[in-house]
């Protein structure tokens, strides 16, 4: 099989001045892509600035690749896209990776802690992607990556702002995947594990050392490739391990016999075991699949009501 290459492709990696983003940018650059290395260069709470993006662009160029540094915040998404267009004339791949932390226990989370984190992660990814989307649509090609987090999937003490934004990105990705499909624009979400400045004081030292950020990059590259058909999916990635997620929904139970019966909290209580039992669970992949099961069930309840109202017609009809 041919190696995974990105010749003639233009890639934007936001927050690529360090950590995971840097490793994505280097890997794309090494495989032929023209890379926009975006990074504001602030500290991990988003304060200050530095020339980190220049250093990464220099690393790519020193290795024989093509790159340009960009210092706009993801809140100025259109400027980042313009940098790609001015320098390389296209935008094929966008990796929304920029991020900050403002950890506080939920009750102590201020408006600013909430807003800053949402502005960079969720609103920032929205703004950069919205600016890229029409360009990709015109090309009839695009690959978009959103960056989520296990904190969003599972929750994490002290990260209510961050976990809400990170799972918000999954919802955003799911809808972009649906809207982009017909233009060959795919959008997938990655929840990475990497030893970076964001995690140095939360991961045990051994784990921090082993979860090298460059071990996440191969998944991001494959999801960004034109041959990859994956769309609207979520993956966890760390230490060279990659796994896809899906939703699981219990078979559940209608807590009434017919469409005309009332539904009571007592009935919910009395059926709790079945409502929460994952034996033979469903795995709806789309909104349509999820609601179709409900609609079918409602039809059964209607049929049950008419049999109850007219028992003889059903007995004789068989
Ligand atoms: P990092 O702090 O090394 O990298 C984030 C980069 O984003 C920084 O270089 C920072 O300057 C840049 N940035 C921040 N605000 C920006 C803005 N407004 N505009 C442009 N750039 C901005 O952290 P790390 O760990 O590499 O994180 C990368 C992404 O992965 C983040 O979205 C983070 O939330 C996510 N993540 C990381 C995990 C990990 O284990 N390291 C776990 C789960 C998610």
UniProtKB/TrEMBL annotation:
It is found in: Peroxisome. Residues 9-182 form the Ketoreductase domain. Belongs to the short-chain dehydrogenases/reductases (SDR) family. The lineage of its organism: Eukaryota, Metazoa, Ecdysozoa, Arthropoda, Crustacea. This is Peroxisomal multifunctional enzyme type 2.
């Amino acid at each position: 099989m041919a190696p995974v290459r990105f010749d003639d492709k233009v890639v934007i990696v936001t927050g690529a001045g360090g950590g995971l983003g840097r490793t994505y940018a280097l890997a794309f650059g090494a495989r032929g892509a023209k890379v926009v290395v975006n990074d504001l260069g602030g500290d991990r709470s988003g304060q200050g600035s530095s020339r980190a993006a220049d250093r990464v662009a220099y690393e790519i160029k020193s290795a024989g690749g093509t790159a340009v540094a960009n210092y706009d915040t993801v809140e100025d998404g259109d400027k980042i896209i313009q940098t790609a267009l001015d320098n390389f004339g296209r935008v094929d791949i966008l990796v929304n990776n920029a991020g900050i932390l403002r950890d506080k226990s939920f009750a102590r989370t201020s408006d600013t802690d909430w807003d800053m984190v949402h502005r960079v992660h969720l609103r920032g990814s929205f703004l950069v992607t919205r600016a890229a989307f029409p360009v990709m649509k015109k090309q009839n090609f695009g690959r978009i990556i959103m960056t989520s987090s296990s904190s969003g999937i599972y929750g994490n003490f002290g990260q209510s702002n961050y976990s809400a934004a990170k799972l918000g990105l999954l919802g955003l990705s799911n809808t972009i995947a649906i809207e982009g499909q017909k233009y060959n624009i795919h959008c997938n979400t990655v929840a990475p594990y990497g030893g970076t400045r964001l995690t140095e004081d939360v991961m045990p030292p051994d784990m921090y050392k082993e979860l090298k950020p460059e071990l996440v990059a191969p998944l991001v590259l494959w999801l960004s490739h034109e041959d990859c058909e994956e769309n609207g999916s979520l993956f966890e990635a760390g230490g060279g391990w990659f796994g896809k997620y899906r939703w699981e929904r219990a078979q559940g139970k209608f807590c009434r016999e017919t469409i005309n019966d009332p539904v009571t909290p007592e009935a919910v209580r009395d059926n709790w075991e079945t409502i929460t039992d994952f034996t033979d669970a469903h795995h709806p992949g789309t909104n349509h699949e999820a609601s179709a099961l409900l609609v079918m069930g409602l039809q059964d309840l209607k049929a049950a009501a008419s049999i109850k109202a007219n028992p003889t017609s059903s007995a004789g009809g068989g």
